Fold this sequence. Notes:
Helices cover 4% and strands 42% of the residues. The chain is mainly beta. A hairpin with a 2-residue loop joins strand 21 (388-400) and strand 22 (403-413).
Amino acid sequence: xxxxxxxxxxxxxxxxxxxxxxxxxxxxxxxxxxxxxxxxxxxxxxxxxxxxxxxxxxxxxxxxxxxxxxxxxxxxxxxxxxxxxxxxxxxxxxxxxxxxxxxxxxxxxxxxxxxxxxxxxxxxxxxxxxxxxxxxxxxxxxxxxxxxxxxxxxxxxxxxxxxxxxxxxxxxxxxxxxxxxxxxxxxxxxxxxxxxxxxxxxxxxxxxxxxxxxxxxxxxxxxxxxxxxxxxxxxxxxxxxxxxxxxxxxxxxxxxxxxxxxxxxxxxxxxxxxxxxxxxxxxxxxxxxxxxxxxxxxxxxxxxxxxxxxxxxxxxxxxxxxxxxxxxxxxxxxxxxxxxxxxxxxxxxxxxxxxxxxxxxxxxxxxxxxxxxxxxxxxxxxxxxxxxxxxxxxxxxxxxxxxxxxxxxxxxxxxxxxxxxxxxxxxxxxxxxxxxxxxxxxxxxxxxxxxxxxxxxxxxxxxxxxxxxxxxxxxxxxxxxxxxxxxxxxxxxxxxxxxxxxxxxxxxxxxxxxxxxxxxxxxxxxxxxxxxxxxxxxxxxxxxxxxxxxxxxxxxxxxxxxxxxxxxxxxxxxxxxxxxxxxxxxxxxxxxxxxxxxxxxxxxxxxxxxxxxxxxxxxxxxxxxxxxxxxxxxxxxxxxxxxxxxxxxxxxxxxxxxxxxxxxxxxxxxxxxxxxxxxxxxxxxxxxxxxxxxxxxxxxxxxxxxxxxxxxxxxxxxxxxxxxxxxxxxxxxxxxxxxxxxxxxxxxxxxxxxxxxxxxxxxxxxxxxxxxxxxxxxxxxxxxxxxxxxxxxxxxxxxxxxxxxxxxxxxxxxxx
Length: 816
């Protein structure tokens, strides 16, 4: 696994940023006078912030002085802890200021599994089936910086174990009853687990004496690869799922009725924190110009020891959560005509809100309601959604021989993947401290990284919560997915068939899973976060001044709309050859991607976020094939081979899958929040086509790009993005950017997998199967998505691949 990272060189980590000077100047004043112009690479002194009247009389701005005339930070200003952290970075092993460190850490993945299955027929109508499967996975996922991480999620050491079994009966009475059990356990540890690295570099109380807070605090440093143990580790989860279901089928005349019920009970014991050893953010705002956001550097903020935000949390052990869901359905397959079949069905589902040791922040009453304790309320006060009716309709019509028209419509309800029960992370079981700082103010010593964290993190009162809380809203509302399709299938000859169709999906109530802050200040104002609590300007400040973030959890707020044209050609296996080729033209729009994520700039107006979202692959072509080589006994070539020769030469098959797709959509962002609202997805203004490299060639050069050319280091033109202007009447708070989500495209992907296989018959009931598989046969580099930070050198670089290099696997299977 190869990574390309950006790490500080030896002179910069000592405070010497003279290599950042560009020779190009800017000014916070429209018509600059003497002393009002600065180099674009200037490092400013955050302790010198003062009001300045522009010489042209245009008004007053907040101005900072450069740290020195040569862009070198005086040693007296440097923070010892910040220097220690910076010196943990490995030194560059490549040239330049960006993409200067290449690593190829080894990923370890060991798996053991087995399956047991029992089938028994008591008599013709009665059968029983039982099965059991076991998997044990042990893996190590190093980050770009090895044990020092390099990504917010999820370099770790994992141990995952799952077990599942099922049991079913069926018979001529057309009744199918089955039950199942699934158990899943995961233990994911940070790479530096058990080592108090934060304590060693001088961050007080980041490592608090318990192993769950061991490791290195996560440092997000703008313009550089982040460093520290992954957030959301350690993670410990044990999950049990029980299922009981029954389906009755009744065939009468032209109807085939089905009636069924499906009940599932889910138990999960879970432990996971956001930042048990602490996290710090250094976006470079303290060393940048406040009016234009030019200059500054995240590393400069770090070695000065001044974060823009920090946080740490603590949890009292694993917390249990319990769910259940019940579904009932009725369906009729109606053969209305010899050439027309209708499928009509109705399903009703009820999914319980979480119960167990959970809490939910009541958005109206501003308290945490808990499902446990002296004032327990079932399901933490979250109500059931009893409106999940799901009609289904399908048809298959054959207007003429060898032609079938098929279509369907249905409504589905489904929880989204990778969802964890973070409602257990609420007071009083969770202790959380977080701070947001106003970059327009002189930094105080208490916010320095060398000040670390408080020796005691208080557990908040649910009736007067502080820190971070989570809410799923008043009702447990499941995502609603409406799907429809229409297609035509035609068989041209005995073995050739073609299909063309349209597929549409409209999804509502998709979950916002902690991708915004419902307590984000409403407007970009200089005064936000300006008081001692760091929460001034937040919606709940007047009633809960110590409350920082209100994180939505499974919050039904987002939506998406997918449309696709699909076509395929299929040759059934005959004459030793099978082929399937398909092409899809698709577009996916909305404000939520398919991975429980989103890019919400203003938490109070998610409807303003609209654009291409994952997985928005506009074009995708796939061809798969298998071909039995016509060599050997009874075949076209060498048909009279003897037994031994035919056993070696004859009967070989080749096959493969070749795929090609256009680039994936992703969203351009800035390295920090200029709105002073704590936006987690602040974006720039877009002034041109990001793939037109004729725009802003001087700016491209300043960002380390080859002007006028697309390269792996500059996949898109960062010069078409600009910092939004100051909000009316403000001196540091900028308006929200106008660039939309999904405004960039990654590289295309082309991949070819190949297989060579043969069966060797030993005797009548014994044979050996040999397979050699070649993944990425041509060793073609498929590059991953580039960075999305438009205001930093290297921010548009591609630093990883989306597929592995060529891999070859050999397998033998003995069948008897």
